[in-house]
Amino acid sequence: MLPHKFKVGQNALMRPAVAENRAASTTVSVTRLLPVEGGEPLYRIRLDLSGQERVVRESQLGTAGTVGVPERPPTAMTAIPGSKEARSKAGRKKS
């Protein structure tokens, strides 16, 4: 059995369906963990704004801060001590 990613009482963001044409995700609260169906865990959730409840698949949910957030640019890489790159940089240093 697949483990559920979210727990009861946890807040999550519900990704908008393509057909719904919404620009933003909706904040929801997980109210119940449901059995796996079709190879994916199901959840009963409550929409925070309207109070409506519905059943969604785990793929429809995201953790706060992950849905619609652009990826961070890569950070500068540093040479690993003892690597070929580190040795070549060390040889270029002026003493």
Feature tags:
5 strands, 1 helix, elongated, mainly beta, 95 residues, 5-stranded antiparallel beta sheet
Task: Summarize the model shown.
This protein is mainly β and 95 residues long. It has one helix spanning 84-92; strands at 11-14, 26-37, 40-47, 53-57, 61-62.
Secondary-structure blueprint:
Layout: E1 11-14, E2 26-37, E3 40-47, E4 53-57, E5 61-62, H1 84-92
Antiparallel strand pairs: 1-2, 1-5, 2-3, 3-4
Outline, from the CA principal axes? elongated
Please estimate the helix content: under 10%
Secondary structure category: mainly beta
Strand order of the largest sheet: 4-3-2-1-5
What is the tally of beta strands?
Answer: 5
Our Rg estimate from Cα atoms comes to 22 Å
Kindly report the oligomeric state of this protein: single chain
Provide a count of the helices.
1
Series of H and E elements: EEEEEH
How far is the first residue's CA from the last residue's CA? Answer: 62 Å
Q: Proportion of β residues?
A: 25-35%
Q: What's the overall average pLDDT, rounded? A: 76
Extract low-pLDDT stretches: 66-75
Largest sheet geometry = 5 strands, antiparallel
What would you say this structure looks like, in words?
With 95 residues, the protein is mostly beta strands. The chain is 9% helix and 33% strand. It has one helix at residues 84-92; strands at residues 11-14, 26-37, 40-47, 53-57, 61-62. The protein has a five-stranded antiparallel sheet, with no helix packed on it. Strand 3 (40-47) and strand 4 form a beta hairpin.
